[in-house]
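Quick review question:
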């Protein structure tokens, strides 16, 4: 008689385990869907807005920039300096010993082969984000005849390498390429 009672107890326990498994799976599934619905808006709000995506790359006609001149433009809501370097600036920049620089980059690291006279940098000081002077005619170019940040006194050379002051790194060179001899694509 003892055997049938044991059999019924095992079947009863098996039924309870199955109901518990179903409830656990349903609860975990419900929590997973709830977490996904909660996290999706948070992640999607970190994506770039439509106006920023529209400016993912820009093309600039550089044919009107004379040797020794620079222009300021805007890309991704940040200033960009496009400079047509003089042969003297190129020669002096190549002579600099990169071991003496705080952020060692050679002239070749900052320009494109065959288009070495063109320097394109973000116009944002790497110290605290001010816009350096030196791109427009008549602006102070600093001790190294390049760019000068008036906020805290950082001095950059003609190819945007930090030479003096609190800025930790060189002016950033964005990704760029020449679409034609006179049009540069930034981004």
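Suggested answer, residue by residue:
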């Amino acid at each position: 008689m003892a055997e049938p009672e044991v059999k019924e107890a095992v079947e009863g326990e098996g039924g309870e385990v199955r109901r518990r498994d179903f409830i656990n799976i349903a609860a975990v599934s419900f929590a997973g869907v709830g977490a996904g619905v909660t996290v999706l808006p948070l992640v999607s709000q970190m994506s770039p807005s439509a106006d920023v995506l529209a400016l993912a790359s820009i093309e600039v006609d550089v044919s009107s920039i004379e040797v020794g001149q620079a222009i300021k433009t805007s890309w991704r809501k940040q200033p960009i300096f496009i400079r047509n370097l003089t042969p003297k600036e190129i020669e002096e920049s190549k002579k600099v010993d990169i071991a003496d620089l705080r952020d060692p980059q050679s002239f070749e690291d900052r320009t494109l082969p065959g288009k070495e006279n063109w320097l394109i940098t973000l116009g944002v000081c790497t110290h605290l984000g001010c816009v350096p002077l030196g791109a427009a005619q008549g602006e102070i170019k600093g001790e190294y005849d390049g760019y000068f940040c008036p906020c805290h006194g950082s001095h950059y050379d003609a190819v945007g390498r930090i030479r003096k002051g609190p800025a930790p790194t060189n002016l950033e060179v964005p990704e760029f390429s020449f679409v034609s001899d006179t049009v540069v694509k930034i981004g």
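Why it works: The two ends are 84 Å apart (CA to CA). Residues 52-186 form a domain with the Rieske Iron-sulfur Protein fold (CATH 2.102.10.10).
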